[in-house]
Design a protein that fits this description.
The structure holds two protein chains of two kinds.
Chain A (H helix, E strand, L loop, with lengths): L5 H4 L5 H10 L5 H9 L20 H9 L6 H14 L6 H18 L4 H15 L9 H29 L8 E5 L4 H12 L4 E6 L6 H11 L4 E4 L4 H4 L5 E4 L3 E2 L5 E4 L2 H10 L4 E4 L40 E4 L6 E4 L2 E3 L1 H12 L1
Parallel strand pairs in A: 1-2, 1-4, 2-3, 4-7, 7-9
Antiparallel strand pairs in A: 5-6, 6-8, 9-10
Helix pairs in contact in A: 4-5, 5-6, 5-7, 5-8, 6-7, 7-8, 8-9
Chain B lengths: L1 H8 L23 H6 L28 H16 L32 H15 L8 H38 L4 H16 L2 H25 L14 H10 L25 H7 L9 H12 L5 H17 L9 H19 L4 H15 L7 H32 L6 E6 L3 H12 L4 E7 L6 H10 L3 E6 L3 H4 L5 E5 L2 E3 L4 E4 L2 H10 L4 E4 L5 E2 L16 H4 L26 E4 L6 E4 L2 E3 L4 H10 L5
Parallel strand pairs in B: 1-2, 1-4, 2-3, 4-7, 5-8, 7-10
Antiparallel strand pairs in B: 5-6, 6-9, 10-11
Helix pairs in contact in B: 3-4, 4-5, 5-7, 6-7, 7-8, 10-11, 10-12, 11-13, 11-14, 12-13, 13-14, 14-15
Classes of the chains: A alpha/beta, B alpha/beta.
């Protein structure tokens, strides 16, 4: 089963959220053991992949290899894997190479349809890499070299995106402020880490982030940096909102309306913050910009994950297992991206310019 | 009204004041000097018999109407000198409106000639009504007083001039072989003049005469561009006169014109069509295909943005096919002039839609880009294929793309609501049905056009399950709706959707019920203009159809409405839906939020299609 997307044999469970669970879930409790027995073990380095039709090179292998770095976002792993496709390709014409690349990106996208950033990053990669004007005029080898160069550059940009965002958002964190964060987002953590390094005095409220309790992990990390942290259960958001100066969330995907798709609970935090006039800042890399336009919550392809309530649930009772929700743009204040600090409406402008 | 006015001065971007508040005039001010000085003379002919004459002193004889008329007159005076469109209530109830003072920038006060008589008086009235207003407006009131004083000084001079002009007019009138406008204007005035005093008549006739003079003077200059501005201000008489002299279609202005919409053409309906049909064989300059399309617009046989645009382009195609360059002229110049004359003919039949305007822009830019060295037949074929391509790429392919995108937003079990009849929405619904999606359609319709019935028939024929209701019931039906699909005549760059009247109402109700509103509009209908309300640019339909209820002989209370002078019927054709109520716009470039319309407009221009 390793290497194959869980979407292959169990379409119910979202691979994206499984990976997140493996990387950021709290490992100490017995809850994880339960969760692990409920889900399948996380795909580690794979050997026997058969999803890819390529004879001697598999994108999925490459992708999984990159994916194992907990510090590397899934999308960046995908970008690295696609770059590897180009360099290891044996195609002799530009057309062949493009078709190969297209196949690889399709395989990647099909591997986990629930991951928005994976799809978005593959699409963006294709746009960025193949959209070079000089391609037709050069001979194949130099064109290929150029493609690899562009691919590496894109990978580099994506990798550095988090640092850029960290720098951009420092102006928004002022001394003595209280920040509410939801779940574990590597970008948000980067932002807070940098702020702590810059000797800013601030307090962080971490939500628990049920069911995978990613908030516990974040509070743990922040405590190591000597940042004052308070853990808040997910249902206490409105109760604590009075003390909060700003809300910081990450995003699984930024959609065309300028809204975000993120871990379950983001929408309600944004609603509470809006009604109390607190700013909601989103930190998201630009490779998460996706060509989706959900109109409401049900308009998303559901990404499911197991929810553990600690007690057996009667079989007649239904459980809402969706892992994410959609926050419309009117509840967001600003987006911190590597393209700059954007208002939600600019997202769509950027997307139109990318894809038009 | 007062309170709202002052709150407008303190700009609060959060409060969106739709409908009642006109923005600073978006129309570039391009009056000819003569037009500028003369336009204030065009006091709206008093529509009401004088009941409140006792309000006015003897020295101001021309004021014979209710206070509402005067305030409008003031606003028009203002319009011409301060570029500020007057906010006035949409309802027809005669509510007195306090006007802000005319903030004349560079234009000297003396531009206000005879109208100052009216202005001075209405200011007096306004001041009488003002004390309700808070302290903040005190300065304003004072300013107004000063202004009115200034104007009173001018009034005597103006009266003298009016007298002089009246004499000229008497001479001119004998010579004039029947300019329709002057005839109607004077005849309309005769009635009210009976009640008023003699000088009143003089003022009016002089107005007609002087406007004729002004028109003659400036028309020399304007002869070249013989297409009336697509958003011509119809309360600017000199321009109207000019346009009228060139006109092919014989149009009489309706007598009971709606005050708030005086800047829009308001003609008597019903008379043009037989008139134009009779003229069929006398029309040299207009190509028969264009003529046919014009007649179809006039009779309403062709309606809907896409249909009208395609019909027009095809007519132009025919005209280009039959076109030969006259000796001693170049194709580029002569054909452009020719197309312009066709366009002005079509405008007379029915005001252009934004889509048609964009298509004309495309065609003209194509003509001007023709290489000079190309032979005539080559140019003609290339133009024809350009038109063909425009129709195919920008309309047909765009619709296909829209259908493909929008269908993804329809899920099983949905209840879709649509208003009126939009070709794009119809295609979407039919395609979704063909894909086997299980959904229900609510077709909302309204009087007097009942365009929803056409859509309903086509949907029912294809086997969709439909509900048909009128817009009165929209708030009842909305709670079971999951998506609202709307068509649009145009999308403006602030995201405002300009569409058939009633669309805004449906969108607002949907918004209130948290139902997503999806607007389907091809990108060639996007326009870089900004509009905040439905007043400054709109089209007025036949007011008669509002008064008549088909199949109900007993509802005849309005049968003789045109004889009632204090009644005006308003039949608006379009309205503007603010972008707040639109969740998504589906175009051929993808699904975009209304905030991204400027991006599409910009990208669209970059394709060098237009310029």
């Amino acid at each position: 089963m390793e290497g194959e997307g869980p979407s292959m044999e169990n379409p119910k469970i979202s691979a994206y959220y499984q990976t997140r669970l493996a990387h950021f879930g709290v490992v100490s409790t017995e809850w994880l053991a339960q969760a692990q027995s409920a889900t399948k073990p996380i795909p580690s380095s794979s050997t026997d992949t058969s999803t890819d039709k390529d004879a001697n090179f598999s994108v999925i292998d490459e992708f999984n290899r990159w994916r194992n770095h907990p510090d590397l976002a899934e999308a960046v792993a995908a970008i690295r894997a696609l770059a590897a496709v180009i360099s290891s390709s044996k195609a002799s014409t530009m057309m062949q190479l493009e078709i190969e690349l297209k196949n690889a990106s399709d395989t990647l996208k099909a591997w986990d349809t629930t991951s928005i950033s994976l799809t978005a990053a593959s699409d963006l990669f294709m746009r960025y890499v193949t959209r070079t004007s000089a391609l037709e005029f050069e001979d194949f080898n130099s064109a290929k070299a150029r493609l690899i160069e562009r691919a590496d550059k894109f990978g580099e940009i994506s990798y550095k995106a988090r640092k850029v965002i960290g720098m951009l958002s420092q102006d928004f964190i002022f001394d003595g402020c209280t920040i509410l964060v939801h779940g574990f987002s590597r970008v948000v953590f980067e932002v807070l880490k940098l702020a702590a390094h810059n000797k800013k005095h601030f307090r962080v409220f971490c939500t628990e982030g049920r069911p995978d309790r990613t908030g516990l992990r974040l509070s743990n990390e922040l405590a190591k940096l000597d940042v004052p942290v308070k853990l808040v259960i997910d249902s206490a958001v409105a109760y604590t909102m009075d003390d909060v100066d700003m809300v910081f969330v990450g995003a699984d995907g930024v959609v065309e309306s300028g809204g975000i798709i993120n871990m379950m609970g983001t929408y309600q935090i944004a609603l509470v913050a809006k009604s109390m006039n607190k700013p909601v800042y989103v930190a998201a890399e630009s490779y998460k910009f996706a060509r989706h336009y959900p109109l409401d919550q049900k308009d998303l392809a559901p990404a499911l994950r197991p929810v553990d309530f600690g007690v057996p649930i009667p079989s007649k009772v239904e459980v809402e297992c969706s892992a994410r929700d959609y926050t419309p743009p009117q509840y967001l204040t600003l987006l911190f991206t590597d393209l700059g600090v954007l208002t939600p409406s600019v997202v769509s402008d950027e997307l139109i310019q990318l894809y038009l | 009204m007062d309170a709202r006015r002052s709150s407008r001065a303190v700009i609060d971007p959060k409060i969106r004041m739709v409908g009642f508040f006109a923005p600073p005039a978006p129309i570039p001010f391009e009056f000819s000097p003569s037009g500028n000085s003369l336009s204030p003379v065009m006091i709206p002919p008093p529509l009401h018999s004088s009941e409140n004459l006792e309000l006015h002193s003897q020295s101001q004889p021309s004021v014979t109407s209710t206070s509402r008329d005067e305030t409008i007159a003031v606003s028009r005076g203002q319009n011409s000198c301060s570029e500020e469109i007057f906010p006035a209530p949409m309802s027809l109830s005669p509510s007195p409106v306090a006007s802000t003072l005319p903030r004349c920038g560079g234009i000297p006060m003396c531009n206000l000639t005879t109208v100052s008589v009216v202005n001075a008086d209405s200011f007096a009235i306004d001041e009488r009504e003002k004390p309700i207003k808070g302290g903040g407006s005190a300065v304003e009131v004072k300013d107004e007083a000063v202004n009115s004083k200034q104007k009173k000084d001018k009034s005597s001079k103006a009266e003298r001039r009016a007298l002089q002009e009246a004499k000229d007019a008497a001479k001119a009138a004998t010579k004039a072989e029947g300019n329709t406008a002057s005839r109607t204007a004077t005849s309309a005035n005769v009635k009210s003049a009976k009640a008023a005093k003699p000088p009143h008549k003089d003022v009016n006739t002089s107005a007609v005469a002087s406007e004729k003079k002004g028109g003659d003077r400036s028309s020399e200059k304007d002869r070249k561009k013989d297409v009336p501005h697509p958003r011509m201000q119809y309360d600017d008489k000199s321009r109207v006169e000019k346009a009228k002299r060139r006109a092919v279609v014989n149009q009489t202005e309706s007598r009971n014109r709606v005050e708030l919409f005086r800047h829009l053409p308001q003609y008597e309906h019903g008379s043009q069509l037989p008139d134009l049909e009779a003229k069929f064989f006398q029309l040299g300059p207009v190509h028969p295909s264009v003529y046919k399309v014009g007649l179809q617009y006039l009779s309403g046989d062709i309606s809907g943005g896409n249909a009208r645009c395609i019909a027009m382009l095809q007519a132009f195609q025919d005209a280009i096919k039959d076109y030969t360059v006259p000796r001693g002229k170049t194709l580029v110049r002569d054909l452009t002039a020719k197309i312009s004359s066709y366009v002005s003919f079509l405008i007379e039949c029915r005001p252009l839609s934004v889509s048609m305007g964009n298509a004309i822009r495309f065609l003209k830019s194509r003509i001007s880009q023709l290489p000079r060295t190309q032979s005539e037949s080559e140019s003609k074929t290339s133009l024809q294929s350009d038109i063909e391509r425009f129709i195919y790429e920008k309309i047909i392919l765009a619709d296909k793309m829209i259908v493909e995108l929008a269908v993804t937003k329809i899920r099983d079990g949905d209840v879709l609501l649509t208003y009126g009849s939009s070709s794009a929405v119809e295609m979407i619904l039919l395609h979704a049905h063909k894909l086997g999606k299980q959904f229900r359609v609510v077709v909302v319709d309204s009087r007097p056009s009942h365009r929803g019935k056409i859509l309903l028939r086509r949907l029912v024929e294809e086997g969709l399950s439909c509900t048909y209701t009128h817009i009165n019931a929209v708030s009842y039906i909305m709670h079971e709706v999951t998506r609202v699909f709307l068509g649009a005549s145009s999308v403006l760059s602030n995201g405002t959707v300009y569409s058939g009247v009633g669309t805004a109402c449906v969108a607002m109700v949907a918004h209130a019920f948290h139902v997503p509103v999806i607007v389907c509009c091809e990108a060639f209908k996007f326009h870089e203009r900004v509009q905040l309300d439905s007043i400054c640019s709109n089209e007025l339909g036949d007011p008669d159809v509002v008064s008549k209820v088909s199949g109900r002989q007993d509802v005849n209370h309005l049968d003789a409405w045109s004889n009632t002078e204090n009644l005006q019927l308003l039949n608006l054709v379009y309205d503007a839906t603010p972008s707040d109520y639109v969740s998504m716009i589906v175009t051929d470039y993808g699904m975009i939020p209304p905030t991204s319309v400027p991006v599409v407009v910009r990208e669209y221009n970059r394709e060098h299609v237009w310029t």
